[in-house]
Amino acid sequence: MTDRSERTQSQAHSEGMTVRREVLSDAHVDRAEAGKTEFTEEFQDFITRYAWGEIWTRPGLDRRMRSACVLTALIAAGHWEEFEMHVRAAIGNGLTPDEIKEILLQSAIYLSVPSANNAFKHAQKVLADMGVWGE
Predict the structure, then answer these.
(1) How many domains does the chain have?
(2) Calpha distance 109→103 (Å, rounded)
(3) Would the pTM of this model clear 0.85, i.e. be above it?
(4) Do residues 107 and 76 touch, judged by C-beta distance below 8 A?
(5) How confident is the model at residue 135 (pLDDT cuts 50, 70, 90)?
(6) Is 38 contained in some domain?
(7) Dist CA 83 CA 85 (whole Å)
(8) Which region holds residue 124: left if phi is over 0, alpha if psi is between -120 and 50, else beta?
Protein backbone atom coordinates (compact mmCIF):
# COMPACT_ATOMS: atom_id res chain seq x y z
CA MET A 1 0.00 0.00 0.00
CA THR A 2 1.22 3.50 -0.78
CA ASP A 3 1.92 6.25 1.75
CA ARG A 4 -1.60 7.29 2.74
CA SER A 5 -0.73 11.00 2.67
CA GLU A 6 0.28 10.83 -0.99
CA ARG A 7 -2.52 8.64 -2.33
CA THR A 8 -4.56 9.94 -5.22
CA GLN A 9 -8.31 9.59 -5.48
CA SER A 10 -7.72 7.01 -8.19
CA GLN A 11 -5.48 4.96 -5.87
CA ALA A 12 -8.02 5.18 -3.04
CA HIS A 13 -10.75 4.05 -5.46
CA SER A 14 -8.65 1.17 -6.77
CA GLU A 15 -7.64 -0.04 -3.30
CA GLY A 16 -11.20 0.48 -2.10
CA MET A 17 -12.64 -1.59 -4.92
CA THR A 18 -10.23 -4.41 -4.09
CA VAL A 19 -11.24 -4.44 -0.41
CA ARG A 20 -14.92 -3.98 -1.23
CA ARG A 21 -14.78 -7.05 -3.48
CA GLU A 22 -12.86 -9.08 -0.87
CA VAL A 23 -15.31 -8.19 1.91
CA LEU A 24 -18.67 -8.11 0.10
CA SER A 25 -17.94 -10.46 -2.84
CA ASP A 26 -17.45 -9.91 -6.53
CA ALA A 27 -21.11 -10.76 -7.18
CA HIS A 28 -22.35 -8.05 -4.80
CA VAL A 29 -20.01 -5.39 -6.19
CA ASP A 30 -20.78 -6.40 -9.77
CA ARG A 31 -24.51 -5.95 -9.05
CA ALA A 32 -23.86 -2.55 -7.46
CA GLU A 33 -21.71 -1.48 -10.38
CA ALA A 34 -24.25 -2.73 -12.93
CA GLY A 35 -26.99 -0.82 -11.10
CA LYS A 36 -25.14 2.51 -11.18
CA THR A 37 -26.95 5.33 -12.88
CA GLU A 38 -25.94 8.87 -13.68
CA PHE A 39 -27.77 9.79 -10.47
CA THR A 40 -25.95 7.24 -8.23
CA GLU A 41 -22.49 6.94 -9.80
CA GLU A 42 -20.95 9.70 -7.66
CA PHE A 43 -22.28 8.05 -4.50
CA GLN A 44 -20.82 4.68 -5.55
CA ASP A 45 -17.46 6.37 -6.18
CA PHE A 46 -17.71 8.14 -2.81
CA ILE A 47 -18.32 4.96 -0.80
CA THR A 48 -15.67 3.05 -2.74
CA ARG A 49 -13.02 5.72 -2.13
CA TYR A 50 -13.89 6.72 1.43
CA ALA A 51 -15.52 3.75 3.16
CA TRP A 52 -13.53 1.05 1.41
CA GLY A 53 -10.43 2.89 0.16
CA GLU A 54 -9.74 5.09 3.18
CA ILE A 55 -11.31 3.41 6.22
CA TRP A 56 -11.29 -0.34 5.49
CA THR A 57 -7.69 -0.13 4.21
CA ARG A 58 -6.33 1.53 7.36
CA PRO A 59 -3.92 -0.65 9.35
CA GLY A 60 -5.30 0.16 12.83
CA LEU A 61 -8.01 -2.53 12.96
CA ASP A 62 -8.20 -5.92 11.31
CA ARG A 63 -11.23 -6.90 9.24
CA ARG A 64 -12.75 -8.98 12.03
CA MET A 65 -12.80 -5.95 14.33
CA ARG A 66 -14.10 -3.70 11.57
CA SER A 67 -16.91 -6.19 10.93
CA ALA A 68 -17.83 -6.23 14.62
CA CYS A 69 -17.97 -2.42 14.64
CA VAL A 70 -20.06 -2.33 11.47
CA LEU A 71 -22.57 -4.88 12.78
CA THR A 72 -23.06 -2.88 15.96
CA ALA A 73 -23.46 0.39 14.05
CA LEU A 74 -26.00 -1.12 11.66
CA ILE A 75 -28.02 -2.53 14.56
CA ALA A 76 -28.01 0.88 16.23
CA ALA A 77 -29.19 2.57 13.05
CA GLY A 78 -31.71 -0.14 12.15
CA HIS A 79 -30.29 -0.69 8.67
CA TRP A 80 -31.39 -4.32 8.34
CA GLU A 81 -30.64 -4.94 4.65
CA GLU A 82 -27.09 -3.65 5.15
CA PHE A 83 -26.87 -5.60 8.41
CA GLU A 84 -27.65 -8.86 6.60
CA MET A 85 -25.04 -8.07 3.95
CA HIS A 86 -22.46 -7.41 6.67
CA VAL A 87 -23.32 -10.59 8.60
CA ARG A 88 -22.27 -12.44 5.43
CA ALA A 89 -19.17 -10.25 5.20
CA ALA A 90 -18.34 -10.85 8.88
CA ILE A 91 -18.25 -14.61 8.31
CA GLY A 92 -15.97 -14.02 5.34
CA ASN A 93 -13.79 -11.77 7.49
CA GLY A 94 -13.31 -14.57 10.00
CA LEU A 95 -15.94 -13.94 12.67
CA THR A 96 -17.65 -17.10 13.84
CA PRO A 97 -21.40 -17.45 14.33
CA ASP A 98 -20.74 -17.60 18.09
CA GLU A 99 -18.81 -14.32 17.95
CA ILE A 100 -21.64 -12.71 15.99
CA LYS A 101 -24.05 -13.97 18.65
CA GLU A 102 -21.89 -12.31 21.32
CA ILE A 103 -21.92 -9.01 19.39
CA LEU A 104 -25.73 -9.20 19.28
CA LEU A 105 -25.95 -9.96 23.00
CA GLN A 106 -23.66 -7.00 23.71
CA SER A 107 -25.90 -4.80 21.56
CA ALA A 108 -28.91 -5.77 23.68
CA ILE A 109 -27.30 -4.04 26.65
CA TYR A 110 -25.94 -0.93 24.95
CA LEU A 111 -28.52 -0.39 22.19
CA SER A 112 -31.78 -2.04 23.16
CA VAL A 113 -33.38 -5.43 23.61
CA PRO A 114 -35.80 -4.82 20.70
CA SER A 115 -32.90 -3.90 18.41
CA ALA A 116 -30.98 -7.01 19.41
CA ASN A 117 -34.10 -9.14 19.02
CA ASN A 118 -34.46 -7.91 15.45
CA ALA A 119 -30.74 -8.41 14.83
CA PHE A 120 -30.98 -12.02 16.00
CA LYS A 121 -33.86 -12.63 13.60
CA HIS A 122 -31.94 -11.20 10.63
CA ALA A 123 -28.61 -12.80 11.55
CA GLN A 124 -30.14 -16.23 12.12
CA LYS A 125 -31.75 -16.09 8.67
CA VAL A 126 -28.45 -15.15 7.00
CA LEU A 127 -26.41 -17.71 8.92
CA ALA A 128 -28.94 -20.46 8.12
CA ASP A 129 -28.94 -19.44 4.43
CA MET A 130 -25.14 -19.66 4.49
CA GLY A 131 -25.33 -23.10 6.15
CA VAL A 132 -23.21 -22.04 9.11
CA TRP A 133 -25.85 -22.06 11.87
CA GLY A 134 -28.85 -24.26 12.59
CA GLU A 135 -32.23 -23.32 11.20
Answers:
(1) 2
(2) 10
(3) yes
(4) yes
(5) low
(6) yes
(7) 5
(8) alpha
